[in-house]
Amino acid sequence: MPNKRSLLMGAHFMNGDVACAEGAIAAGCRFFAGYPITPATEIAEHLSQRMPEFGGIYIQMEDEIASMAAVLGASYAGLKAMTATSGPGFSLMQENIGLAVMTEAPCVIVDIMRGGPSTGQPTLPSQQDVMQARWGSHGDYATVALAPSSVQEMFDLTLEAFNLAETYRVPAMLLGDEIVAHMYEKLVIPPPDKLRIVNRKRPNVPREEYVPFKPDEDLVPPMACFGEGYRFHATGLTHDEHGYPQTSSSEAQQKLVTRLCNKIRKNEDRIVRVEETMLDDADVAVVAYGIVARSALSAVRKAREKGIKAGLLRLITLWPFPEKRVAQVAKQVKAIVVPEMNCGQMVLEVERAAKETPVAFLSKLGEEPHTPLEILEEIRRNS
Amino acid sequence: MVEQVTHPLSKYLRADMMPHIWCPGCGNGIVLNCFVHALDELKTDLDKLIVVSGIGCIGRTAGYTNTDSFHTTHGRSIAFATGVKLANPELEVVIVSGDGDLFAIGGNHFIHAARRNIGIKVICANNFNYGMTGGQFGPTTPLESVTTTSPYGNIEHPFNLVHLAAAAGAIYVARWTTLHVRRLTQSIEKMMQKEGFCFIEVISPCPEIYGRYNKMRTGLEMMEWYKKASVVESFSDPAKAEITKEKIVVGEFVDTEKLSYEKLFHEKIAQINERSIQ
Q1: Which of B193, B172, B175 is nearest to B184 (CA)?
Q2: Please, where in chain A does CATH 3.40.50.920 lie?
Q3: Three-class SS of residue A116?
Q4: Measured between CB atoms, does A31 come within 8 Å of chain B?
């Protein structure tokens, strides 16, 4: 049991869900609203114990729609806030993820992916929600999604998701899967003063001069919180920089929605993270993420042992998609292999970036991710 | 020289949001008027008041009040407000929204917030239909009413909102019509001073849409109905608080005390942290 009122530090052996919860606390999250769902429940359970120790709030809402709405309320009241769910709950959250986008409410949504569609296979892993994370809510927008491959990353990337949410005022998503959520591994947590924690930009003008949705050069508006005397209005309607509804102005729609997309697109180079292994001289590149990337790494090593020049590009950021890097790699290799635990989602993005370079897709659904041998076989076929 | 005269209550409103979107004869302005009168009477600190609305005609209220305000997605005002209130219990959080928003799409959030006794205050303008989308029947539309989606007369039994709120656990429940301006204002004042989940239903005319299809084409005709039919039966059984052509039962139905969710939560936090220090 962790000590009360203290952040964890040092080496631990824990599962991914608990690591995610501890990452949130380390990031300064002090509000969790959620609804029990396999395989994300352990995040809620752990935070129901830990949040009160830090004076934070744990509330179990009546459903995921309400959970997401409460998270936005807490975010506007000034707290770092999150929820955690799996596919069916993620679907219900899409409505208010759109509201978070529109009102630029920083928050984190953890989706521990299980087999879908619908109720699917609650206790088994998948990577079937990656497109939903990008396009799940209606209307045009851009946001951030990160894909952890280990228990360590369940901690690190949860913290990073908060930093990105606070920096860009977006709902940031962590797309784990049942395996990284439930497996136990070593986790090393640096002391709190070694962690990079970002807090939202605050207004630096007198209250009467505050224009709540007027962006700075980075396209992100500074954020005041409820109860501080700024007396501002926010709405899910298309609005002007004052937050006032503009329901019939084409110009307002053009300006707002373009900025909401551009604040991610134009900051892509600052956001995107990938991990590269043996790519420099590779003839075949494997592009993978999440739990599948671990099998892919093993496959790439086995290929090298057999004299095949294979390399791995592991996507840590799924959204924005690391398009530039994938395009560069595509120019250099003969073929790209994309293994995913779905019927072909991120592979569409890879194909788009790869242009003429052939892309081979390897699907796997159900209990286990691809074995290294399955991926090795695909590398061999394409070498 | 012409003297500039400002309305004594103008500080409660965002003048730059005017003109409002409401139709002639609509009761929403009366609801807003009573609300700001109550704020004035209580000398409410506007910096600490958060007004939240959902979608619908009355949902624009959040934008019209000169406080921090948030206009949520349809039906989600209570869930959003729950997050606000828990994150900062010092804030006074008031929801002004409509019957369709709060009781159809948002019905689940309403009963659970009442059950938890979260300290948010809900004012529901009940106009018996979905006005903004052009007048479809909703969860409070009386039987046999004609709307654009019940052209042969409504066959759905309506909710009795005060009975629902009382059963779900609200600590203050009242119903008035927009004719009961003084009682409604006093009721809002009373509600604002309570700690816990409170609910006021305001029967409000929608002559341009609901009235048009139901032989009450002006706000005045609807107000005359309220005048003729309203009976104050305070602290009577809310289950029997009917709304019919002949009788509209109004009054206060529940006024009790119960520890609020936020109070219990913060007491729990204090206990936990005391234990850990020992």
Answers
A1: B175
A2: 275-381
A3: coil
A4: yes
* Radius of gyration (C-alpha) of chain B in whole angstroms: 19
Please tell me the distance from the alpha carbon of residue A296 to that of residue A305, in angstroms, as a whole number.
14
Q: Which CATH number is A275-381 given?
A: 3.40.50.920
Between CA A93 and CA A108 the distance in angstroms is 12
- Name A351's Cβ contacts closer than 8 Å, sequence gap at least 6: A359
Residues 6+ apart with CB under 8 A from B35: B61, B65, B94, B96, B123, B188
Which residues are bridge partners to A107 per DSSP?
A171
Q: How far is residue B245's CA from residue B68's CA, in Å, rounded to a whole number? A: 39
Nearest Cα residue to B73 out of A162, A220, A71: A71
- Dihedral sign for Cα B37, B40, B41, B46, please: positive
Q: What is the pLDDT of residues B2-12, one digit of tens each?
A: 788 888 999 99
Query: What one-character DSSP code corresponds to residue B178?
Result: T
Q: What gap in Å lies between CA A115 and CA B73, rounded to an integer?
A: 29
Give every CB contact of residue B129 below 8 A, 6+ residues apart in sequence: B100, B135, B136, B137, B138, B141, B145, B147, B206, B209, B210
Q: Do residues B139 and B99 lie in contact, with contact meaning Cβ atoms separated by under 8 Å? A: yes
Residue with tokens 């020992």: B278
Choose among B191, B217, B213, B218: nearest CA to B202.
Answer: B191
Q: State whether CATH 3.40.50.970 applies to domain A10-194.
A: yes
DSSP string, B119-135: SEEEEEEE-SSBTTTT-
Tell if the CB–CB gap between A53 and B276 is shorter than 8 Å. yes
pLDDT tens digit string along A100-125? 999 999 999 999 999 999 999 999 99
Residue written as token pair 């006794």:
B117
Tell me, yes or no, if B127 comes closer than 8 A to chain A by beta carbon.
Answer: no
- Check residue A370 and report its DSSP letter: -
The distance of A78 to chain B (nearest Cα, Å) reads 7
Residue type for position A249: S
Measure the CA–CA gap between A332 and A350, rounded to whole angstroms. Answer: 14
Look-up: residue for tokens 């004052």? A242
Q: Are B177 and B226 in contact (CB under 8 A)?
A: yes
Q: What does the pLDDT look like over A309-362, one tens digit per residue?
A: 999 999 999 999 999 999 999 999 999 999 999 999 999 999 999 999 999 999
Q: Is the whole model's pTM more than 0.90, yes or no?
A: yes
Gap between the Cα atoms of B157 and B71, Å rounded:
29
Looking at residue B3, what is its pLDDT? 81
Closest residue of chain B to A94, computed from CA coordinates? B73
Identify the CATH class of B13-277: alpha beta
Measure A131 CA to nearest chain B CA, in Å.
Answer: 23
In angstroms, the Cα distances linking A199 to A70, A166, A227, A272, B270 are 20, 6, 18, 19, 26
Q: Where are the alpha helices (DSSP H) in B204-258?
A: 212-213, 219-229
Here the tokens at position A364 are: 């796997």
Chain B residues within 8 A of A79 when measuring between CB atoms: 87
State the smallest CA–CA distance between residue B261 and chain A in angstroms: 10
Query: Residue A269 and residue A56: Cα distance in Å, rounded?
Result: 34
Per-residue model confidence (pLDDT) at position B11: 95
How far apart, in Å, are the Cα atoms of B101 and each of A369, B97, B186, B212? 44, 7, 25, 22
Q: Check CB contact under 8 Å for B83 and A226.
A: no
**Which two tokens mark A368?**
């286990």
